[in-house]
Design goal:
mainly alpha; 72% helix; 0% strand; elongated
């Protein structure tokens, strides 16, 4: 397999190696794929949770939406983002 990188992608890989964040170009590309796999798993889990929630809602298994529930949803969302390494949550 042969992979072509855009000039911007090549520059990013070179910066990551030059800064010491990655030991080599291969390590930088491997890290990118690891993060992509992580994102794909997150999306798969999210789709599963959405399907489950929709099935529950369609079956009438719902909770009333109020400020307490809204606050809990925000808290849970911020926690999930923080666990994924997002800073501004």
């Amino acid at each position: 397999m042969s992979i072509s990188l855009s000039p911007a992608q090549k520059a990013l890989v070179q910066r990551l190696v030059a800064s010491g964040r990655c030991r080599s170009e291969t390590d930088a590309v491997n890290e990118a794929f690891r993060l992509l796999e992580e994102d794909e798993q997150f999306l798969e889990d999210l789709r599963h949770d959405l399907r489950t929630s929709l099935d529950e809602a369609n079956a009438g298994d719902v909770a009333p939406f109020d400020q307490t529930l809204a606050d809990q949803i925000k808290t849970d969302g911020r926690k999930a983002l923080a666990e994924r390494g997002h800073q501004d949550v």
